[in-house]
C-alpha cells in the first residue's frame, strides 16, 4: 500500500489515497450484538484459534449462556468477563466451542468464574488483536494469534498475580477435560467439545492444546471440582462438592470440571505472555503447531505478521470514494468472510477425518465449519471470485469428506456432521464452483457424490424423505421430514445444480432428469394463495394454512426457520416459472411488494435474502432493487455492534453486504450469473487471481455522490451493457464496469 | 513338593506328607465377611493387579458401597455382581481403588450397572484364580493375574455378547477417567483414584491401563454419562443426563463417568480372554507391563505360573500335624500377608515418586501400601523372619520416600501420604528390622529421618503436637491433636525405637534422650484409676473420664479407635514400668483379667492385640497366655468368610494368627524378642533365607494332640529353655524348638 502514501486526499475520504490500510477499517465489534454471534477476538484469517473475551457466563450479564439459547462467547452489551477462550465459532446459531479459557487475576487463587470474573473497560479490537482492562484486577489483557496458536499478554501489577486455565467452563455444553503440567511453564491437555445445536452428543470430540507461560511461576497447580455426592458417604467427605486445589500437581488430571493455575509474586508490574497451540489431532501436534508458528516469537512479532496477513487478504478489494463508515462496514464484512470455513489441519497436514476416527493428512488445506445451507447462496460465489484458491481447497475438503465417510457434508464442524438445517447444499456449492470456472478438482467424483445423495433411497443421511420426494415431487406434511415445503425447495435447488453440472459434463439424460426434478416445487404451489403451501401425502392441502406463521423462527408445519412468505420466492433457478404461476410480472411484483411492505421480509435469515434482487427480473422495476438494497444496507449493515441483521451465518450475511456494496449479486446458485445494483463506492478495484482470471484486475466505478442511488447506465469496458444481469465469465474478463448514476428514479 | 508325593499318610492329615500343597490350603474367601475387607480376587504375590468380583454396588446388596462406610470391593453375603475390578486394596478400613471394572454381558448393550448387574453362583477362589457363574447371562467368568496384569476368561453362549469396561463405577469416591480405542481389540486409558479415608482429595492420582481382547469384536464403542443439566438449556438437550453410546468411537474420551464396550455375534459358545496391564506411571508402561508379563501367554499359562509363585512363597513354612481347618487358616493368613505392601514399580523399574510428581526408577522393588500404625506391631517382624529380602526392600522403599519428600511414610498408598491414623510408626519398623539383623540399608539416613520426625517442631506432618509432647511429656486434650493419650503412647513407642537404634549406633546421648522420652506416658497415668487418662494442658485431668467410652470405634476424647482399656496396657516397651504403676504384678494381672473378662478386649483392632501375651510377664500366669491365644484363634480365626476378627489391616491380623499358631510372638516392637505360646501344629518347618540366617531351617515341634493346650517345657536344640521369652537371634540360630505340652494347666 506504500505507493499510495503521500498522495493528496481529494473529495471523499479514501482507502486508496489515505495512509489507512484495509485492515485498519475493520471493526471486529460489528456483529457482537443483535445476535450477530461474531466475537471481537484476535485471530488470523481462517485460523483454527481465536482468542476471544468470554462474557456470557454469570447472571450479571444481560445475555447469559445457560439461561437461554446463546451461540457466542461474547455479547457486546454484557459486562462481566470470565476469561479468554481459544477456540470459537463466529456467526453461527448454536452454542459450541468457546473453551480453553484463560483468565488473569490477582490475589488469592479463586477458581469459581462467578467470583473471579470482572467488569472491564477500554476494549480495543482489530484484526488479530484484542485488548481490555479488567477493572477488578487493574490488569490489561491483550491477545493476538497465528493460525493455530493464541498469544496473550497480561500486564500484571506488583503483588500476587495468577493465570487461570478453566477447562470446566465453556460455551459448549459438553464437558470432559484432561490436563497435565509438563513443567511449571507448560501445560498440555484437551477439552471435549461438540453437541453443536444440541445434536449428536455421541460425536463429541477432543480439542488438544499446549500452553506456555513466558515467566516461571512462583507456584502452580491444578484444580478439580467434583459433583456433590448426596449419598450417605457425603458425611465423611469434607471436600464434598468443593473445588480442590492440587498444588504442585504434575500428574494427569481428568474430569468434567478441572482447571490449572500458575501464580506469581511480582515485586514490580510485570508482563507475562501466554502462548497456546491447538490441534484437533493430538497434544503432540498442538505442540508442533505452537513451536512452528510461534516458538520464541514475541507477542508483537506474532501480531505484526497476522496483521500483515489480514491486510493482504483484505486488500484483494480496494474501495475508495465513499463514506468512512462504509469502508468499515465493507472491510469488516470481508473480514467476517475470512473466519469460516476455517483451517482444521495441523501445520504438518494432519487432521481428524470425518466419521472414520482416523487421522488424515493433506498437502493442501483441510477446511471445516461448512454451514452450507447458509453459504451456498452467495458466500462460496464470493470466495470463487475473490479467493479462488481457498474456494478450491474448500471443494477439495468436501470431496475428501466424501472419500472418508461416503457423503458430502451438510453442516460439517471439525470433522463431525452435525446434520443441522435441511437440503443438500454441498451439490450446489460444488456445481457452482465448477461452473464459474474453478475446475481443478475431481469433478467426476464430485458428480458421483451428488448423484448418490440425490438417488440413494435408503439410509440417506443428507436427503431424508427422498423416496416420497421422487415419487410425489414433494415432501408431504405426513412424511416426518421437518419443513417439507422448505426442504422440497432445497432439494429442487440441489437437483438444479446437479442438472447444470450434468449438462456441462455431457450427461444429457441426467440433465433432463434432474432439471425436471428441480421444478417439482410447482406441486406445492397453491393457485388460490399464489404461494407454496404444505401438502398432505394424498395431495390435499394442509389446513389451516397461515402464511404468516413461522416468522421469527417460530415453529410451523411447512417451513424451516421462516414462513410461507419468506419461502414464497425462494426458487432462484426458476424465477420466470414461478412468475408465471403467480400470474406473471404483476402477480410476482405484487407478492414481492407485499412482502416488503408488510414486514414479511427477514433480512436476518437466508431463505429470502435474494428477494430484493428479484425486482431485476421485471423490466422497469429494477430501481426497486437498487432502492431496497440501498435501504437494507443502511438499516442493517452498520458500524455498530448491532451492525449485522442477525447471525452472520459464517459470513453469508457479510457476503450479501459485500456483493451488494460492489453492485453485483450472484442471484442463482449453480448458475454463474450476477444481477446488478448500485455500487456503494465510487471506485472498487478487485485484484483477481490471475491463475484463474487472467485479466487480473477489475475496476467498478460509479459516479456516485451520497445522493446518487439509482443506475442510469452501465458500460463494460466502454460498451453499454444492456439489462441487469451479467455472466460470471463476462465479469471476470472485464477490466472496468462503469456505472452512471442518478439521484432520482 | 514332588518329593512328598506317594508317602503314606499317617496320623493327622498333613501338608508335608499329602499331595496337597500349601497353595491348595488357601481359602481366599476368609475375611470377605465380618468387615475383614479382603477380597477373593485373583492376584500374584504382592501384585499391583488383582481381579476381584465387585458386588458392593446397588441396593440389592446387603452392604452397599454408597450407603455406608465400606472399604472392600466384595462382601461375601452380597449377591449382586456388577463387574470385575483390576486394582484393589485388601484388608483396609477405607474405600479406595476398586476400579477398571470389566463386565461380560449378553444381549443389547446396557451401561447402567444397576441394570446390567447379575446374581451369581458357583464361586471358586484359589491363589491366583477366581471363577463365578453369572446367572443372568449364563456366562462363566474366570480370572487370573500376573504381578502387573490381569487376565480374564469369559465363556459366552452363542448370540450377542459384550464386554463392558465401566470407568464411572468404582469403590473409590474419586471420579475422572480417560479411554481410547487403539484398535478394536485394544483400549488404553486411565482412571483417577484417591481420597483414601475421605482424606486428601487433592492427592488423587491416575492409574493407567491397557486392555486387550483375544477376539476382534463385531462392534465397539465408548460411552459417556453426563450429569443432568437443570438449566434453561436442558429443554433443547434431548440427551440431557442420558448415557450416550458412541459407536466405533476412536477418539480420546474423558469425563467423570465414561466407559467402553466391545460386542460380539457368536454363532457358537465362545471364550474371550481379556488381558489388562496396569501402571501408576503411564499408559506406555501399562502396555510394557502387559507385553512383558503376559504377552501372548494364555490364561492357563499365566495361572500356572502365578500358582507356582504362590506355592513357592507359601512353602517358606511347612506345617503338619494338626487339623485340616488349621492348615487352611494358617496358609490363608500367610497368603494375606503377601498382598500388601505391594509392588508399585513397573517392570521397567519406574514408579511415581511420593510428592515430587517425578517418575523414579528402582533396581529393586518399590513397595507401597504401608499401613504402618497396624503393621509395626507384628507384620514386619514376620516379614523379617520369613521374607527378609522383601522386608529389606520395604525398608529401602521407605527410605526412598524420605529421599523424595523429606519424610518417612505414615500411611503411604501408591506414593501418596494419606496421613491416616496417628503416631510415627516408620521409625519402629526400621529400627526393628535393623535390630533383628537386617542391616543392608542406609542406617545413617534412616536414623537421620527418624530423628527429624522426632525433633522438628514446625511443619512436621508426622508428629503433630510435638512441641507440647516434648515440653510436657504428653499431648493434652487442649492441643488439637486427635486422641492425645493414644498419640502420646505412639510417640513413646517411636522414641523407644529411636533409642534402641541409637544405642547400637553408639549414640549414647540420643539413646538416653529418646529412651527417657519413651517413658513419658507415665505423665498420663492416673493412680486413682490405674489407667492412662486424658489430661489438660495445665496438668489437670480431663473429666468426666469414662474408660469404657471409645469401644467399637466410637469417637472419644483421649483415644484413637479404642477406649482407655484398650490402650491401658499398650506400653510394650515398658511393661515392667507400667506394672509398677499399676501396683505390681497383681494390679497388672487384675487389669488384664478385667479387660478380658469384661469384654474390653478387642481382637479386631491393633492397640490391644498383644494383650493376651502380657500374662507371660508374670511368672505363673503364662498359662493364661496359652489359654487366651488358643481361644482367640479358635473364636476369631476360622475357615469361614467371617474368619477374621475384622479388618485384616493389610495382614496384621493374619500375622498375629501366624505367629500365634507357630507359638511365638514379637512382643516388643523394636526389641528383637519373642514371647512364646502353644504352637497349633505338631511340626512347623521354617525355611530361613540362608543369606540372612545361615542355620537355614528351623523346626518347631510340639507333642500336641487336639487336647494338649498348655506348655510343659521347651527344649531348644536339646537344651531346656527357661522362661517364656526368646531373642530373635537365638531363634534364628536354632535348629529345633521342641515343645512338650500337657492337657491341663
Automatic annotation (TrEMBL), chains A, B:
The species this protein was found in: Imtechella halotolerans K1
Glycosyl hydrolase family 92 N-terminal domain span: 25-279
Pfam families per record: Glyco_hydro_92, Glyco_hydro_92N
Official protein name in the record: Alpha-1,2-mannosidase
Oligomeric form and interacting partners: Monomer.
Gene Ontology cellular-component annotations: cytosol
InterPro entries with a match to the protein in the record: 6-hairpin_glycosidase_sf, GH-type_carb-bd, GH92_a_mannosidase_put, GH92_N, Glyco_hydro_92, PNGase
GO molecular function: carbohydrate binding; peptide-N4-(N-acetyl-beta-glucosaminyl)asparagine amidase activity
Residue ranges constituting the Glycosyl hydrolase family domain according to the UniProt record: 285-742
Superkingdom as given in the UniProt entry: Bacteria
Known cofactor(s): Ca(2+)
Alphabetical keyword list: Calcium
Calcium as UniProt keyword: yes
Amino acid at each position: 500500500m506504500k505507493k499510495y502514501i503521500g498522495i493528496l486526499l481529494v473529495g471523499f475520504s479514501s482507502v486508496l489515497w489515505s495512509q489507512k490500510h484495509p485492515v485498519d477499517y475493520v471493526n471486529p465489534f460489528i456483529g457482537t450484538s443483535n445476535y450477530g454471534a461474531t466475537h471481537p477476538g484476535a485471530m488470523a484469517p481462517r485460523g483454527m484459534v481465536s482468542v476471544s473475551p468470554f462474557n456470557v457466563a454469570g447472571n450479571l450479564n444481560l445475555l447469559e449462556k445457560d439461561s437461554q439459547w446463546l451461540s457466542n462467547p461474547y455479547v457486546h452489551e454484557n459486562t462481566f468477563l470470565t476469561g479468554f477462550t481459544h477456540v470459537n465459532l463466529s456467526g453461527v446459531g448454536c452454542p459450541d466451542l468457546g473453551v480453553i479459557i484463560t483468565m488473569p487475576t490477582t490475589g488469592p487463587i479463586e477458581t469459581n468464574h462467578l467470583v473471579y470474573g470482572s467488569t472491564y473497560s477500554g476494549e480495543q479490537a482489530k484484526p488479530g488483536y484484542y485488548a481490555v482492562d479488567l477493572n477488578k484486577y487493574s490488569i490489561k489483557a491483550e491477545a493476538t494469534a497465528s493460525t493455530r496458536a493464541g498469544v496473550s499478554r497480561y500486564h500484571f501489577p506488583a503483588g500476587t498475580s495468577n493465570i487461570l486455565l478453566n477447562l470446566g467452563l465453556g460455551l459448549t455444553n459438553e464437558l470432559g477435560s484432561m490436563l497435565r503440567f509438563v513443567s511449571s511453564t507448560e501445560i498440555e491437555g484437551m477439552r471435549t467439545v461438540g453437541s453443536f445445536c444440541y445434536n449428536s452428543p455421541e460425536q463429541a470430540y477432543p480439542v488438544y492444546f499446549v500452553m506456555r507461560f513466558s515467566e516461571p511461576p512462583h507456584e502452580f497447580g491444578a484444580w478439580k471440582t467434583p459433583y456433590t455426592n448426596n449419598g450417605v458417604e457425603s458425611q465423611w467427605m469434607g471436600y464434598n462438592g468443593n473445588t480442590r486445589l492440587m498444588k504442585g500437581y504434575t500428574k494427569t488430571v481428568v474430569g468434567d470440571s478441572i482447571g490449572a493455575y500458575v501464580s506469581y509474586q511480582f515485586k514490580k508490574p510485570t508482563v507475562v505472555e501466554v502462548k497456546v497451540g491447538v490441534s484437533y489431532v493430538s497434544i503432540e501436534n498442538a505442540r508442533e503447531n505452537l513451536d512452528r508458528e510461534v516458538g520464541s516469537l514475541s507477542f508483537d512479532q506474532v501480531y505484526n505478521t497476522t496483521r500483515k496477513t489480514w491486510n493482504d487478504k483484505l486488500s484483494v478489494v480496494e474501495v475508495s470514494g465513499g463514506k468512512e463508515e462504509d469502508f468499515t462496514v465493507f472491510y469488516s464484512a470481508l473480514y467476517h468472510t475470512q473466519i469460516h470455513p476455517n483451517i482444521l489441519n495441523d501445520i504438518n497436514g494432519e487432521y481428524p477425518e470425518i466419521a472414520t476416527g482416523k487421522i488424515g493428512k493433506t498437502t493442501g488445506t483441510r477446511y471445516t465449519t461448512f454451514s452450507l445451507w447458509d453459504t451456498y447462496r452467495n458466500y462460496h460465489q464470493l470466495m470463487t471470485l475473490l479467493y479462488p484458491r481457498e474456494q478450491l481447497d474448500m471443494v477439495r475438503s468436501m470431496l475428501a469428506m466424501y472419500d472418508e465417510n461416503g457423503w458430502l457434508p451438510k453442516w460439517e464442524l471439525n470433522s463431525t456432521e452435525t446434520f443441522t438445517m435441511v437440503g443438500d447444499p454441498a451439490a450446489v456449492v460444488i456445481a457452482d464452483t465448477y461452473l464459474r470456472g474453478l475446475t481443478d478438482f475431481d469433478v467426476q467424483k464430485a458428480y458421483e457424490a451428488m448423484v448418490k445423495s440425490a438417488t440413494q433411497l435408503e439410509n440417506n443421511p443428507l436427503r431424508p424423505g427422498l423416496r416420497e420426494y421422487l415419487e410425489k415431487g414433494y415432501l408431504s406434511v405426513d412424511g416426518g421430514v421437518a419443513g417439507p415445503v422448505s426442504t422440497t425447495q432445497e432439494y429442487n435447488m440441489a437437483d438444479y445444480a446437479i442438472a447444470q453440472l450434468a449438462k456441462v459434463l455431457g450427461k444429457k439424460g441426467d440433465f433432463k432428469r434432474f432439471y425436471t426434478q428441480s421444478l417439482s416445487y410447482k406441486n406445492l404451489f397453491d393457485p388460490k394463495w399464489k404461494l407454496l403451501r404444505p401438502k398432505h401425502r394424498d395431495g390435499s392441502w394442509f389446513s389451516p394454512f397461515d402464511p404468516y406463521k413461522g416468522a421469527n423462527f417460530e415453529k410451523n408445519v411447512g417451513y424451516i426457520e421462516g414462513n410461507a412468505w419468506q419461502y414464497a420466492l425462494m426458487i432462484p433457478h426458476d424465477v420466470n416459472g414461478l412468475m408465471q404461476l403467480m400470474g406473471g410480472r404483476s402477480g410476482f411484483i405484487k407478492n414481492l411488494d407485499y412482502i416488503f411492505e408488510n414486514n414479511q421480509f427477514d433480512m436476518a435469515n437466508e431463505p429470502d435474502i435474494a428477494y430484493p434482487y428479484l425486482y431485476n427480473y421485471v423490466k422497469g422495476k429494477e430501481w426497486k432493487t437498487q432502492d431496497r438494497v440501498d435501504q437494507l444496507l443502511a438499516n442493517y449493515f452498520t458500524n455498530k455492534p448491532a451492525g449485522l441483521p442477525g447471525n452472520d451465518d459464517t459470513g453469508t450475511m457479510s457476503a450479501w453486504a459485500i456483493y451488494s456494496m460492489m453492485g453485483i449479486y450472484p442471484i442463482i446458485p449453480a448458475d454463474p450469473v450476477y444481477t446488478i445494483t448500485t455500487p456503494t463506492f465510487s471506485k472498487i478495484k478487485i485484484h483477481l487471481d490471475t491463475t484463474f482470471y487472467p485479466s487480473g484486475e477489475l475496476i467498478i466505478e460509479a459516479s456516485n455522490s451520497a445522493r446518487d442511488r439509482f443506475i442510469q447506465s452501465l458500460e463494460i469496458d466502454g460498451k453499454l451493457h444492456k439489462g441487469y444481469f451479467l455472466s460470471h465469465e463476462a465479469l471476470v474478463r472485464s477490466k472496468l464496469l462503469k456505472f452512471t448514476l442518478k439521484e432520482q428514479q
